[in-house]
Amino acid sequence: MFFGSIIYFAGGLLLAVYAQSTPCACSNSTILINSLETLEAAQACTTAAGDIVIEYGEDLPPEIEFPVLETVEGSVLSLNFDENIPAWRFSAPRLNRVKDFYLSHWVNLTTIDMPLFDHADRIRLNDLPQLTTAHFLSTVSRIDFNYEIWNTSLTNITNNRLLYATFVEIFDNPKLETVELLALRNASYNIALRRNRPGLDVRLRDLKEVWHLELQQIASLTVPVLENVIGYFIVNASSLNTLSAPNLQTIGTWYDPHIVVTDNRGLIVTNNQVLDTLSFPQLKNVTLDLVIRNDTSLRNVHFPELHSVAGNVALEGQFTEITFPDLNRVGGEFSIGVGQSSAFCRPFQDLKENGSIRGDFSCPEFSEPTPRSQLDLDNMQEYIDEYLEWVITGQTNAGAIVTVPAFKGVLMVVACLGALFHAM
Length: 424
What we know:
Elements: H1 2-21, E1 30-33, H2 36-42, E2 47-48, E3 51-54, E4 63-65, E5 71-72, E6 76-79, E7 89-91, E8 100-104, E9 111-113, E10 119-120, E11 122-128, E12 133-134, H3 136-139, E13 142-143, E14 146-152, E15 156-159, E16 164-171, E17 178-181, E18 186-194, E19 200-203, E20 209-216, E21 218-222, E22 228-229, E23 233-236, E24 242-244, E25 250-251, E26 267-270, E27 277-279, E28 285-286, E29 290-293, E30 300-302, E31 308-309, E32 313-317, E33 321-324, E34 329-330, E35 333-337, H4 345-353, E36 361-362, H5 377-393, E37 400-403, E38 411-416
Parallel strand pairs: 1-3, 2-5, 3-6, 4-7, 6-8, 7-9, 8-11, 9-12, 10-13, 11-14, 14-16, 15-17, 16-18, 17-19, 18-20, 19-21, 20-22, 20-23, 22-25, 23-26, 24-27, 25-28, 26-29, 28-31, 29-32, 30-33, 31-34, 35-36
Antiparallel strand pairs: 32-38, 33-37, 35-38
């Protein structure tokens, strides 16, 4: 009996100690912070069992700090649309893991200090126009879903630990100079860089596969080991001189060829005024489109291994050389617009005559592609089945090579996968 009393007393003492070290607020499903009092209660937590939600409060200090917080089982959320939180600093020096970390509309926030941060389902930094320091973006090694950075004043985003992500979306950062995700191997949905500071340098040193890769206003791109772009690869309105993907082999795919096709668009390189070198030495297949237009400094288009294009091919510019030595499948019509010169027509006419072009061929007059939306869902499977049968049974050819010394006109080449594809 005496021994049992000791156990009972010791157990009660442990419960008392735990209660003192773990404030009641820490075990709540939601810790709502909207005043100095609620902030001070949360500051005692080492682990938060649920979400931490920060809202506007008149007496909240200019620095929001969680000095001992290590783990948040839920998320850290602050999405203020009615009244902006005036704090300039967010600090959690021991925090290493949350589900979602989402800060939005902190108009004065300049600094996020989380030096040990390592793991999140999602990181979303949206509408933080004064944010200049967020070193935790360099320490994180695991993000299961979203990696979003929108409308900040960050100048560099660098990480050499993150291996995988689903969404990487970096938009509207007017001071951003560099994006370096040096360990990233796979982005299972997209990497999209839009409307950032013109002249952005992008380094994706270990990237091997991505679903969609969309880049705007970049000055350089490094993708030395990229092999497969499942959806589309778009480079638009940029100032890079060279676009090179030395190991890229395929762009685009079907979701299910018996049901529907992706809206992936393929390879699109447009409106890059100083681009003068294009290098895809191992690219073999493009599904759906291949479009190179309004790149005014580009003279040579050379795809030495390209075997098939299932969708649109559109080439427009003052080219002196176009070479497709292995091309033997174009999945729709093939239209070339060359201004006053018909010198480019003959090799592509040969492709049509030997059955390598599935649809109509016209040259030198340009024919506008038929929008994909004009093919309804009832006819889509039939169309795809016919296309796949044509791929298996169609004829082959020796490819097309065209060289026009000192050519000054404008060339446009378009091959369309029938009505399935959007006009550019």
